[in-house]
């Protein structure tokens, strides 16, 4: 275990967290919240000094193997959340540090679950910071850092593998630094596109920025008490569409950007993702039709509901808690499926679901023809058995953590539906669940223990479980 | 530059590693998923799994837009076909590895027919290197510059040597020699020494000199080694083939020990003058019987690295003090450990090929930059001390910013040294009052900095 190199990477993360604080500082200045702004500035400078000091002691050997990569990523996200939560508590906006940590982790992991009773009481600076955590967390902070600095040279791959969602990492071009740059350029482009669209649709600039960060990062922190319900029809459609776009595998965008249209249309995962969205929207539309006066409203509510859940964003325009149970269960399924791999969304990922069902089909066929040789294909290419195995193990880990988390938070004695969807919503990085954690309520009623469990779930969901499990695995910390 | 490497074996791996660390964008192709992922997991490159003679795979790897395609699979014909298809697909420059001795005499024809930019043959290069070492037995390693006029020689300082404990500023006075110490390897660390540097026993010292003054120098410091007259070679593979050919042509008698009867017959047929022994080279008695203790040179060239190391250790113990030992290491990666063993000169064929290709890539890079006015021409490059340092040769052209200025007035970057100036056939060991002229060949030794052009030696 190369502790020095891990600390060096943490130095980068602390430095960047400090630098991010300059944004709420500027926001605070604009909205004449001078004292709050100065606090963000002060903390930002403090973090940057600490980070800079750590980076000053450059480790001699620049090597980082996969376990160090996993530990560095998990620790990095924990440190970033711990530091990012501090201003909320100092400012007294979220007096309890566990609550502040829950809110910050919820931000960085692009979950969007909140413990705030009324978001509108927060200062502009804090609201902006809260939404900005989504943007950073969406594509990943280490990927951002490696786009700018060479941290560990070729070994950066071990960090990217651990931070990027999906069963395999898409390296677009040979150098990882360039791949990271391409990812962030695409991300930045989508962000700008949505900002422009929302401004054209006459959304106020502050709302535009915060809502865009929440959408492209598939986070879901609203800045109004009713999330997205009070936005205009056009604005709601824009948000829906950009949520769907943000859940698409970024490989598709890279292929489009490099003018390989055909190849981008052939991506099976994206195709299935869009099919799932279309079918779910149609089913929910039919199911909830009697609740709305006209078809347009029904369609808008179903589309928004489906896209907010499958992309694991978590905005809301209507209280889907009141929908019939058929629709609610579709939403629960979508929570588990999640967005595409290589997007900013959470959940199991469409590609994993595809691999699992295809693996199942192969097993069935093997019972019928015991000597048959079969392989799993994806995009017309063979999927290595190691990838299939990893996916199956992922499902096991996923189910175990899900079950254990529900067991622990059941101690708080909420209804069964509340507990299950609370864990589903945090573990899959969605935001609101159903019943008492539905879109109109929040997570503040849970005990500190349950909140810590859900903080773990959110991090595990965002980092795809293994890095956090590695942190808890005894052998990781042994010398040999 | 965009570079595609077909084949992820030993050579492919080393190449990908070195080219990527030089800042090039590297894509690798191999049919084995495991080999590709072993490479992409550890080196900053991208991988494609597929057959490198398929047009589809080559396009997938970006050959149509690439600058260079290097085919280093285990199969010569496949390499040639891959380069040929790649060339047709995208006017990319191509380098193929062709190592079957059968093709050796047809290299020029192959290059022309397949429009290859270069052909590499690791075995041939290793054999040439070994042959140089045998022809210059006092040194551990020999690299050649100025078309053979200047050598960079490496040797180890013995405890009894007058060099042990000598400060470099006293070097000229003590040794009465105009030779320049340009690099010292001590405990795995490379130093470009200055006058205050003190040599110690065990240091691996590199000097630049022409053949005759080097011989005089070795005589002065008490390392006298007579010409090698007979060599024993363990293993009868391709390197041995090329080596035997070279040695026999310089009238050095050779004994080859090979365990495969069919191969022995082939070698007997090819080399009537050589002694071919059928037997296991790890058999102590056989070695002694065939005269290991009286041989002038021993080369361990079997296919198993561990065996080679053991054989060389044994040969060094059993043979006379002046005998020269060469060990081939093809796969083992414990360079720092191996360098400390008493196994004489160590040859890494894949490193030789890698520096050959990097030389090519740099000059290609330079020819692309020359359009934007570059002022020297790049001649030769050697990787020293396991890639930790480099010795580069440049030819000065008239526009060069370093021409005409006395060296003492140049601000040369740290860890860079001008080792030698070669002007109209004479060697000048540079001192502060010397200057560079148009047409000079200059050898620069550097560690930790990347030098592409002679002007890179100056501080920015």
Number of strands of chain B: 22
Oligomer: heterodimer
Helix content of chain A: 55-70%
Largest interface: A-B, 12 and 13 residues
Order of helices and strands of chain A: HHHHHHHHHHHHHHHHHEEHHHH
Please identify the top-level CATH class of the largest domain in chain B: Alpha Beta
Task: Quickly list its features.
heterodimer, A: 480 residues, mainly alpha, two-stranded antiparallel ribbon, 21 helices, globular, B: 460 residues, alpha/beta, Rossmann fold, Alpha-Beta Plaits, 3 domains, 6-stranded parallel sheet, 33% helix
Give the helices and strands, then pairings:
The complex is a heterodimer of chains A (480) and B (460).
Chain A: H1 3-20, H2 22-30, H3 34-56, H4 66-90, H5 97-108, H6 124-139, H7 141-148, H8 156-163, H9 176-200, H10 205-216, H11 233-246, H12 250-257, H13 261-265, H14 268-288, H15 295-310, H16 325-337, H17 350-368, E1 377-378, E2 381-382, H18 385-409, H19 416-427, H20 448-462, H21 466-472
Antiparallel strand pairs in A: 1-2
Helix pairs in contact in A: 1-3, 1-4, 2-3, 2-6, 4-5, 4-8, 4-21, 5-6, 5-20, 6-10, 7-9, 9-10, 9-11, 10-11, 11-15, 14-15, 14-16, 15-16, 18-19, 18-20, 19-20
Chain B: E1 2-6, H1 10-21, E2 25-30, H2 33-42, E3 46-49, H3 55-60, E4 68-71, H4 76-90, E5 93-97, H5 101-104, H6 107-113, E6 118-120, H7 122-135, E7 141-145, E8 150-156, H8 171-175, E9 180-186, E10 189-191, E11 204-209, H9 211-220, E12 230-234, H10 238-249, E13 253-258, H11 261-270, E14 275-278, H12 284-289, E15 297-300, H13 305-318, E16 324-328, H14 335-340, E17 345-347, H15 349-370, E18 376-384, E19 389-396, E20 416-423, E21 426-428, E22 441-447
Parallel strand pairs in B: 1-2, 1-4, 2-3, 4-5, 5-6, 12-13, 12-15, 13-14, 15-16, 16-17
Antiparallel strand pairs in B: 7-8, 8-11, 9-10, 9-11, 18-19, 19-22, 20-21, 20-22
Helix pairs in contact in B: 1-15, 7-10, 7-15
């Amino acid at each position: 275990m190369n502790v020095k190199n891990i600390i060096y990477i943490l130095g980068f993360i602390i430095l960047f967290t400090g630098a991010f604080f300059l944004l709420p500082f500027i926001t605070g200045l604009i909205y004449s919240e001078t004292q709050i702004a100065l606090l963000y500035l002060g903390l930002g400078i403090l973090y940057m000094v600490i980070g800079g000091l750590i980076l000053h002691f450059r480790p001699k050997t620049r090597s980082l193997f996969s376990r160090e990569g996993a530990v560095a990523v998990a620790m990095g996200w924990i440190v970033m959340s711990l530091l990012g939560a501090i201003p909320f508590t100092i400012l007294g906006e979220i007096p309890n540090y566990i609550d502040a940590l829950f809110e910050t982790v919820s931000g960085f992991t692009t979950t969007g679950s909140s413990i705030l009773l009324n978001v509108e009481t927060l200062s502009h600076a804090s609201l902006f910071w809260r939404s900005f955590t989504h943007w950073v967390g969406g594509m990943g902070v280490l990927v951002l850092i490696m786009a700018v600095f060479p941290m560990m040279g070729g070994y950066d791959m071990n960090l990217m593998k651990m931070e990027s969602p999906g069963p395999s990492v898409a390296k677009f071009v040979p150098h990882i630094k360039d791949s990271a740059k391409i990812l962030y350029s695409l991300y930045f482009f989508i962000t700008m596109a949505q900002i422009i669209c929302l401004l054209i649709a006459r959304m106020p600039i502050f709302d535009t920025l915060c809502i865009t960060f929440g959408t492209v990062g598939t986070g879901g922190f609203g800045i109004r008490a009713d999330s997205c319900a009070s936005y205009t029809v056009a604005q709601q459609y824009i948000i829906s569409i950009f949520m769907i776009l943000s859940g698409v595998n970024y490989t598709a965008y890279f292929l489009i950007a490099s003018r390989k249209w055909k190849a981008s249309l052939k991506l099976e995962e994206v195709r299935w993702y869009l099919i799932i969205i279309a079918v779910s929207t149609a089913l929910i539309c039919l199911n909830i039709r009697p609740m709305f006066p006209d078809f347009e409203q029904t369609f808008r509510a179903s589309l928004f509901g489906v896209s907010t859940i499958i992309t694991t964003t978590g905005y809301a325009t209507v209280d889907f808690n009141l929908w019939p149970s058929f629709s609610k269960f579709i939403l629960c399924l979508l929570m588990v499926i999640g967005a595409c791999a290589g997007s900013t969304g959470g959940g199991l990922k469409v590609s994993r679901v595809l691999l699992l069902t295809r693996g199942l089909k192969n097993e069935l066929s093997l019972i019928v023809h015991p000597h048959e040789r079969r392989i799993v294909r994806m995009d017309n290419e063979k999927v290595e058995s190691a990838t299939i195995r990893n996916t199956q193990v992922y499902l096991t880990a996923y189910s175990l953590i899900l079950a254990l988390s529900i067991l622990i938070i059941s101690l708080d004695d909420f209804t069964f539906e509340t507990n299950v969807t609370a864990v589903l919503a945090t573990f899959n990085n969605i935001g609101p669940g159903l019943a008492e954690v539905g879109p109109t309520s929040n997570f503040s009623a849970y005990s500190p223990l349950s909140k810590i469990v859900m903080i773990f779930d959110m991090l595990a969901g965002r980092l795809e479980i293994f890095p956090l499990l590695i942190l808890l695995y005894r052998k990781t910390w042994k010398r040999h | 530059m965009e570079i595609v490497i077909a084949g992820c074996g030993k050579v492919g791996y080393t190449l990908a590693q070195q080219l990527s660390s030089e800042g090039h964008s590297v894509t690798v192709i191999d049919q084995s998923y495991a080999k590709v992922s072993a490479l992409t997991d550890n080196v900053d490159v991208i991988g494609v799994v597929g057959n490198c003679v398929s047009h589809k795979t080559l396009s997938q790897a970006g050959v149509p837009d690439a600058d260079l395609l290097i085919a280093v699979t285990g199969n010569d014909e496949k390499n040639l076909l891959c380069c040929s298809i790649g060339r047709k697909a995208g006017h990319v420059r191509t380098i193929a590895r062709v190592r079957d001795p059968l093709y050796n005499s047809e290299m020029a024809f192959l290059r022309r027919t397949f429009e290859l930019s270069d052909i590499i043959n690791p075995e041939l290069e290793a054999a040439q290197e070994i042959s140089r070492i045998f022809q210059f037995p006092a040194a551990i390693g020999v690299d050649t510059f100025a078309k053979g006029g200047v050598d960079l020689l490496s040797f180890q300082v013995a405890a009894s040597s007058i060099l042990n404990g000598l400060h470099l500023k006293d070097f000229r006075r003590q040794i009465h020699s105009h030779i320049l110490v340009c690099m010292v390897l001590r405990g795995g660390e490379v130093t470009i020494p200055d006058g205050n540097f003190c040599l110690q026993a065990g240091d691996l010292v590199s000097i630049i000199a022409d053949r005759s003054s080097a011989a005089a120098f070795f005589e002065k410091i008490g390392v006298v080694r007579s010409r090698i007259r007979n060599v024993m070679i363990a293993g009868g593979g391709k390197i041995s083939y090329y080596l035997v050919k070279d040695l026999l042509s310089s009238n050095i008698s050779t004994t080859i020990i090979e365990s495969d009867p069919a191969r022995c017959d082939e070698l007997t047929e090819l080399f009537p003058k050589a002694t071919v022994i059928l037997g296991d080279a790890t058999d102590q008695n056989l070695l002694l019987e065939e005269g290991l203790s009286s041989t002038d040179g021993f080369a361990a060239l079997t296919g198993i690295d561990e065996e080679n190391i053991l054989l060389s250790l044994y040969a060094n113990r059993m043979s006379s003090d002046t005998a020269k030992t060469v060990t081939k290491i093809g796969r083992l990666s414990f360079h720092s450990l191996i360098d400390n063993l008493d196994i004489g000169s160590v040859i890494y064929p894949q490193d030789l090929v890698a520096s050959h290709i990097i030389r090519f890539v740099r000059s290609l890079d330079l020819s692309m930059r020359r359009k934007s006015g570059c002022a020297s021409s790049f001649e030769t490059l050697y990787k020293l001390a396991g890639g930790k340092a480099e010795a580069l040769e440049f030819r000065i052209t008239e526009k060069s910013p370093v021409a005409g200025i006395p060296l003492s007035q140049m601000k040369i970057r740290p860890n860079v040294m001008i080792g030698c100036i070669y002007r109209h056939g004479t060697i000048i060991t540079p001192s502060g009052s010397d200057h560079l002229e148009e047409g000079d060949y200059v050898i620069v030794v550097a560690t930790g900095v990347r030098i592409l052009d002679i002007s890179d030696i100056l501080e920015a």
